[in-house]
Every structure is written in structure tokens, then in C-alpha cells.
Amino acid sequence: MTDSTTTSAPAPADASGAEPQDGPRRTALHPVHAELGASFTDFGGWDMPLKYGSELAEHQAVREAAGLFDISHMGEIRVRGPQAAAFLNYALVGNLAVMKVGKAKYTMIVEPGGGIIDDLIVYRRGEQDYLVVANAGNAPTVYAELRERVGGAGTAFDVDVVDESAETSMIAVQGPAAEGILLGLVPAEQAETVTGMKYYAADAVTVAGTEVLLARTGYTGEDGFELYVPNDGAVDLWRTLLEAGEPAGLIPAGLAARDSLRLEAGMPLYGNELTRQTTPIDAGLGAIVSFKKEDDFVGRAALEAAREAGTARRLVGLKGLGRRAGRTGYPVLKDGAEVGVVTSGQPSPTLGYPVVMAYVDAEHAEPGTALDVDLRGKPQPFEVVALPFYQRQK
């Protein structure tokens, strides 16, 4: 390869291939959501379905049956080449070189100072072929950072970095009925691929005649799959999944349910729990940083120092002992003094009490510690608990 990076064409404002427009971008599935009566919201610069009817019903469907999500706003960045593994080991905090083909890894891209630029899922599709999946609002930044880091180790890595976000749709089927729904749509000879797929793995399969990359990850705390498909096949695939899943209780679900589900599962959200002002160490995710890698990686020195020094504040779960929920930005108190801040919080539909994720001073982070959340001048009792709040029965 003669060029260290490949520049893709500018992404259209509409992932379906429409001409650029004012306002938030739209996925290829936007017309389908409108047909279904979705309420929309701007999320990461995308016009995304917030809910289709009752967000509580959508939440419960995922816990009890299945939900269908459009997550095409996520970014897909392909990294290919003889030095793809070495490059990603330099650019990201995880050890991507030891991944087996067909596996996935949760990792992060950080600043030299250790601050989190984004959390990512990386799939190894071949010995020299990786797919990096970034959060919606951060995808252009992650792409730019990766391109810049191609030459950041002194000599340019022999890789191509290509942004495939504008041509790729992503549909998630989440819930205990997800596997059964997919089994009814794949050829008999691929059934074992679905049933045998481990958590954080991916493979190419044919779903209702459409070839997709099928991944078993998820952001809800339930079993489930993500289907990566070219934009021109997204609408037919969505309609087929919705129809096939209806007898099992599958319904479309929006961002409101996705947020309450991930909070119950103790999964961090970029912009709330994860920011450029926090490190993986602060967020309790130091285990995803591979300090055993022999070569240097961006942010290594800062993260080693943070690990050695320890963190002044830790990310914890708080269980509400009353009925009112803490919200993002609310102060956390100990004996009336502020000792932390809420990053995410709402009533838990599944558990029946308020749940909160918050950064609190390290001395108050042990499970069982009694704290208050200042709800607009009215302190309400909470207790530190281990995350996740909810864990599915396997």
C-alpha cells in the first residue's frame, strides 16, 4: 500500500444517500420510524427515534421478549493493512493484536493526557482487517484521530483507514427472544453460527436473504445481536425483523428505552460517565487498558501515573431509598457536604426504585455507604451499591 491512509468521500447528511440538509442527519430507516409514529430527538447530531409509544412498554419488551433498535447513527471505521494490529495497539488502549479473527473487544481511544475521546467496540474481521465502531457524535473525531495517529509513532504504519459510516446501517435485536427470532430467518446451515456465537463475537450470515455482519454484543444488559447491513438493504431487513419477531413480542424501541436499559445494566454513556475530563481509571475501567503491551500507546504514561496515584473520585452505583430519582448534574452529599455528582439517573422500570450512576470521593465509594442526592434543595437518601444494578439470568 502506497498511502498510509485512504480518505473517504464526505459523508452525506442523510445516511440513506440523500443530499446534505440543514438540521440533524437522518438514518436510512428514518422514513420507517416516521411511519411507525416515532417521536424524534437530536442525539449526537442525528434525528433519532426517542420512542414509538410508551417508553416503559419498550423497556419491558426488551427485558421480557425483544426490542428492535435503529443504531445506524454509530460510526464504522475500517482499518486494514499489514500493520493494522500494530497500529491499533498504538492508537487505542487495548491489546487488539491478540484478538482472534471473529472476536470483538471493548476498548477506548484516549488523549495523550489520558482523557477519554470515545469508547469503542473493535471487531477483528481478518488477520489484517478490523472494524472500529464509534459513538455517533464522536465518530468524525475518532476517524480524524486515527488518521492522524497513522504517522504518530515516528514512522507511518502501513494501513488504510476508511470511514464507512455513511454507507452502513446498524440494527439491534435485543432481548431473551432475540436468538429465536434470528433462527427463523437464517438458512438452516447457519443456525449453528447463531446459537454458537459467543458474547463479543461476530460473523457473516444471511438474514432473510440479505448478507449481514452479525455481532453478539449489546447495550441493554440482555442477550442480543447487532446486524450491520448496507443502507440499501436496511429498510427491508427492518420490516422483515419486525414482522418475524411480532409473535415473540418484539416491538420497535427508541433511545429512551435504550438509556433506561443501559443504566440498569450499569453501562457507561459517553458524555455522562465518560468524558475527556475522565480516564478509564476514573471510570473503573482500568482493566481494559493493556499495560502489558510491550510497545508504547497514546496515553500510556498518563494512565500509568493515574493507576499508580489512584483516583480522587470513583464511579459508583447509588440505589434510591425513596421514590425520587437523581438526575445528571445533581450534587451527591455526605452529612450535607458535597462529595460527588450524578452522571445518570432515573427510576428503574425493572427494579422499582431509583438508580443513579455518580462520581463520588473515593472515601465514600464503598458499597453500603449512605449518601444523599440533592434533588433541587431536598436531600434524598441513597446507598452505594455494586454495579450493575440489574443482571439477567443466564
From TrEMBL:
Domain of life: Bacteria
Domain spans labelled Aminomethyltransferase C-terminal: 313-390
Region (Disordered): 1-26
Record-annotated GCVT N-terminal domain positions: 29-293
Catalytic reaction list: N(6)-[(R)-S(8)-aminomethyldihydrolipoyl]-L-lysyl-[protein] + (6S)-5,6,7,8-tetrahydrofolate = N(6)-[(R)-dihydrolipoyl]-L-lysyl-[protein] + (6R)-5,10-methylene-5,6,7,8-tetrahydrofolate + NH4(+)
Biased composition (Low complexity): 1-16
Keywords: Aminotransferase, Transferase
Protein EC: 2.1.2.10
Pfam family, one: GCV_T
InterPro entries given in the database record: GcvT, GcvT/YgfZ/DmdA, GcvT/YgfZ_C, GcvT_bac, GcvT_C, GCVT_N, TrmE/GcvT-like
Keyword Transferase listed: yes
Transmembrane segments: none
Function: The glycine cleavage system catalyzes the degradation of glycine.
Record-linked NCBIfam families: gcvT (TIGR00528), PRK00389.1 (NF001567)
Membership in a protein family: Belongs to the GcvT family.
SUBUNIT field: The glycine cleavage system is composed of four proteins: P, T, L and H.
Record-given protein name: Aminomethyltransferase
Native source organism of the sequence: Zhihengliuella alba
